[in-house]
Hints:
With 264 residues, the protein is α/β, with parallel strands linked by helices. It has 10 helices and 7 strands. The protein is globular.
Amino acid sequence: xxxxxxxxxxxxxxxxxxxxxxxxxxxxxxxxxxxxxxxxxxxxxxxxxxxxxxxxxxxxxxxxxxxxxxxxxxxxxxxxxxxxxxxxxxxxxxxxxxxxxxxxxxxxxxxxxxxxxxxxxxxxxxxxxxxxxxxxxxxxxxxxxxxxxxxxxxxxxxxxxxxxxxxxxxxxxxxxxxxxxxxxxxxxxxxxxxxxxxxxxxxxxxxxxxxxxxxxxxxxxxxxxxxxxxxxxxxxxxxxxxxxxxxxxxxxxxxxxxxxxxxx
Length: 264
Ligand code: ADP
Ligand code: ADP
């Protein structure tokens, strides 16, 4: 068990305290503390799979730095140009870029009740910069939910992942197939010339896609970055704020644990 609490441990702090208002605008956040959650785990742990269910439950948005960066790359913005090479190789983009994106995003209206950070913070420096940003409004991270999965399980998850680009919904060719795949009648998808024909989003019917960094090669660097640079973030937030969940189980059991850990 890492620095996070096991499921049976005593309840961590639910909400941030401290109410040093610095302006009227800040007061709207501090008057009713926001639920500020960090969804933590290696690539393929299930963050994208479970985040939409937390969104539905708590009515707060999921802020995925990976999705935001991919959108910036696709739009060809300055941020996107700076981030692209690092993302393609599986390395992290600079702390300044991601903290800048998040600091702006959490001031938007839909974050007034709180937000879920998915894929951020990913370095100790990012967590310290986040804490500093939140301290301006007398706030702090409420809870860190750690999804733990052994590295050996992640390759198959990552290499079989298909995503719906605009919503971020995550599917798997074997573990969580879209309804459209049933039409292939159990035949091998890899033998199909146009795989996207069989891989459509359940809700919109739009085509799913595979991420360019979802390869076994890039996963090696991504996992290396996770262990060396990201895991220290857990210790930073400490036992009181972290809840560790065994995410090497079936999706429903994992959700039951996350559901319990997000009862505010
Ligand atoms: P992350 O957002 O943490 O990188 P995802 O939620 O996208 O991870 O999950 C990675 C892949 O593994 C997806 O294809 C997803 O369908 C699949 N997956 C997620 N959770 C499980 C699970 N408990 N068992 C099997 N496959 C899973
Ligand atoms: P995953 O959790 O499956 O690794 P993400 O979608 O969260 O993937 O991130 C994809 C890529 O975007 C990362 O490999 C990294 O290059 C970049 N990235 C995302 N979030 C951060 C972050 N907080 N700090 C630095 N780089 C990030």
